[in-house]
Known about the structure:
The protein is elongated. It has a two-stranded antiparallel sheet. About 35% of the residues lie in helices and about 5% in strands. It has one domain. By secondary structure, it is mainly alpha-helical. The mean pLDDT is about 85.
Amino acid sequence: xxxxxxxxxxxxxxxxSSFVTGCYPAKHGLMENTVYFPKVxxxxxxxxxxxxxxxxxx
Length: 58
């Protein structure tokens, strides 16, 4: 990869999604290492590193 760089914000899930889709965060929708599910937590994001949070959104 001669012409590559990380996207901003430089966090794992955002960059991995950009790498595999070729899209910037504004297109694929991940802006941080959390996801927003207003029915589960209307005031903020949920960490996808937590098994409990993943079970809440399934």
